[in-house]
From TrEMBL:
Keywords: Membrane, Transmembrane, Transmembrane helix. The chain crosses the membrane at residues 43-63. This is Uncharacterized protein. It comes from the Bacteria.
Length: 114
């Protein structure tokens, strides 16, 4: 997967470089007198574009990771609530009255707060 991503990034960089070079060559040819293309400007533009694309992709990755983390937290909360409910329900069926009363109190504390 990593070699494919590196190849894709290289192809994207090459495409941006070619586009920027053509853009600067066209702009330079319209000037009187015409000037040669400054390769440093082309390289700066290419690096800037690739940096912007990388920043956007990193932001999307961080956003997706945050969503997955929040989903895991919600599932953990739901699992803990189910475990507490099961324990309280088992206490309600116990032979001793004190344990049954503890089960009632445990169920009362199980309010789900959104």
């Amino acid at each position: 997967m990593a070699p494919a991503a590196l190849l894709l990034a290289a192809l994207l960089g090459w495409g941006i470089y070619q586009y920027a070079y053509d853009y600067f060559a066209h702009a330079a040819s319209r000037q009187k007198p015409s000037k040669p293309v400054d390769v440093n400007d082309v390289l700066k533009t290419t690096v800037t574009a690739l940096t912007l694309i990388g920043a956007v992709l990193a932001g999307l990755y961080a956003y997706r990771k945050q969503l997955l983390s929040e989903g895991d937290a919600h599932r953990a909360d739901a699992s803990q609530l189910a475990d507490r409910y099961t324990t309280a329900a088992e206490q309600l069926g116990h032979d001793q009255a004190a344990v049954r009363l503890a089960g009632v109190y445990a169920l009362a504390r199980l309010r789900v707060v959104p």
